[in-house]
Amino acid sequence: MLLRPLEMAQEMVRGAVESGETVVDATLGNGNDALFLAKLVGEQGKVLGFDVQQEAVDASCSKLAEAGFSGDAFQFNCVGHELLGEFTEGPLAAVMFNLGYLPRADKAVITTAETTLPALEQALSLLRVKGVLTVMCYPGHEGGGAEAEAVLQWASHLARDEARVMRYGMLNAPNCPPFLVAVEKVK
Ligand code: SAH
Question: What is the pLDDT of residues 10-29, one digit of tens each?
């Protein structure tokens, strides 16, 4: 069975993360990845989360609380992910980005290369060896194409002895379908 790009991102992260580790959801949105990450690292681990919209932070907090996680297991910040380095010294086992806009919210609030690229740089430098960084790119909306292109440029120029970089997405779909860029830190 072929996985969707978002499912593939989760499988890659699942394979990299151990219980008790620290991980990051860089774009909380509705909190799905944050909940997935919390289940992986458990109460002994920590999920750091970022979103610039308070409603996304609140929705994600509620989602984890409803799933039974205590406040010790996660820390969600209404702050841009470009400030990641001010919130943790690492090491991080995984960092997940889900770019674009939050469905059913203000479509004017989108991630942009200007802040996404510095955040990716910080995420990669804070990852532990064999840690995984996943980036869901959405080239289909206005502004999304330029951002997706910038992510591809950044990722494809990472030194091969430092990072393994993969790209995964549907080929025979119309309208610039989403795709995944995944990076595994080698050293
Ligand atoms: N496109 C995805 C959902 C992406 S949600 C889908 O269709 O399922 C992306 C989230 O990133 C939004 O909640 C938005 O508020 C948030 N965001 C925008 N700029 C950000 C930034 N600089 N730092 C952190 N989050 C940001």
Answer: 999 999 999 999 999 999 99
| Å from CA of 161 to ligand 1 middle | 31
| CA of 53, closest atom in ligand 1 | 15
Quote the tokens at residue 24.
Answer: 């990051």
pLDDT exceeds 90 at position 103: no
Contact between 14 and 39 under an 8 Å Cβ cutoff? The reply is no
Q: Does residue 55 contact residue 105 with C-beta atoms inside 8 Å?
A: yes
Q: How far is the CA of 45 from the centre of ligand 1 (A)?
A: 24
pTM of the model: 0.97
Residue 1 tokens, joined: 């069975």
Q: What is the 3-state secondary structure (H, E, C) of 32-46?
A: HHHHHHHHHHCCCCE
CA of 127 relative to ligand 1 center, distance in Å:
21
| Nearest atom, ligand 1, residue 138 CA | 1
Q: Does the CA dihedral 17-144-162-169 come out positive or negative?
A: positive
| Model pLDDT for residues 43-87, shown as the tens digit of each residue | 999 999 999 999 999 999 999 999 999 999 999 999 999 999 999
